Amino acid sequence: MGPVIRKGKAASGVTIAGLEFKNPVMTASGTFGYGAEFAPYVDLGRLGAIVVKGLSLYPRQGNPGPRIAETPCGMLNAIGLQNVGVDDFIEKKLPLIRGAGTHIIANVFGETVEDYMEVAGRLDRAKGVSAVEVNISCPNVKKGGMVFGTDPQEAFKVVSAVRKSTRLPVITKLSPNVTDIKVMVKAAEDGGTDAVSLINTITGMAIDVDRRRPVLATATGGLSGPAIRPIAVRMVWQAAQAATVPVIGMGGIMTARDALEFIIAGATAVQVGTASFIEPDAAVKVAEGIEEYLSRNAMSIQDLIGSLRVA
Ligand SMILES: Cc1cc2nc3c(=O)[nH]c(=O)nc-3n(C[C@H](O)[C@H](O)[C@H](O)COP(=O)(O)O)c2cc1C
Residue with the nearest Cα to atom 4 of ligand 1? Predict the structure, then answer.
């Protein structure tokens, strides 16, 4: 007899921190705006979740340009967390996607622990937000971000503070710019996180040799896209071995087969980022491809998560 596929729920449905997702595919923060921008091109209701652009306490202009550069199989960005601020998001952006039939996950960012707490606290009172994703891994800002994501004690502090300021499930977004990802997983778990997501972008740089100047105004930026996928798969695999909470994997996912690598490595769900710039409905296509793979192999996603055999 083949594996049993659960009735009444799509074979690719997953549960994270008590939330049921119709499929394991989410959009990655910063690559899908506030969701509504993509509504003309994508049936938002077919996504597992929308993760919105990182939100801070006050609106931010971000970094000066140029702040995006194309690289082989990827891109560098140094947006610097430009966003409308948490209050504007709640008032003007959230109502546009609240009824979209998918979970809305708010990505949060602060320069101080208090900022993170305040933003998460305000989102807690906002109708329609399913969870917060705490970005402790942005490489493109001078203050906050990366400091929290590369020092386990700082990570613990910010995650436990956010945990206390909201009743919503907390997902901690980890940085790949560390030596041992397992230490950061443990710090986030000790802080009370309900899940971890990784990877954020990898610090990179490109130089215009004619001008002998950096391509980006900020000199360095974050590398994303297929170029980083093998690193991301390795880190998700390592994180999943260490984690007791669910892992959400991302980094260079363009197709369903790419996403399957992460799931087989141990991710319960995945996020699609840079691919949405090339094909706005890339995340929906990834979700459909996973569904198709499961039905072709008569498996449920639970059978597939962490099914990697090494040696
Ligand atoms: C233009 C751009 C903006 C991003 N902004 C954010 C952000 O605000 N918060 C965050 O946590 N991650 C942000 N990210 C990181 C992505 O969510 C994702 O972790 C990373 O790009 C790797 O996935 P990908 O290779 O599929 O793009 C951004 C990435 C890009 C390319």
Answer: 30
pTM of the model: 0.96
Q: Which amino acid is at 309?
A: R
Residue range 40-92, pLDDT digits in tens: 999 999 999 999 999 999 999 999 999 999 999 999 999 998 999 999 999 99
- The pair of structure tokens assigned to 241 is 């071995």
Of the CA atoms within 13 Å of residue 163, those in its CB half-sphere come to 17
Distance 222 CA to ligand 1 centre (A): 8
Number of domains making up the chain:
1
> Does 73 fall in a domain?
no
Among 78, 97, 138, 287, the active-site one is 138
Domain range spanning residue 152? 14-65+79-203+225-304
| CATH assignment at residue 101 | 3.20.20.70
CA of 171 to the centre of ligand 1 (A): 15
Catalytic status, residue 138: yes
Please give the biggest Cα pair distance in the chain.
Answer: 66
Give the least confident one: 6-10, 134-138, 218-222, 280-284.
6-10
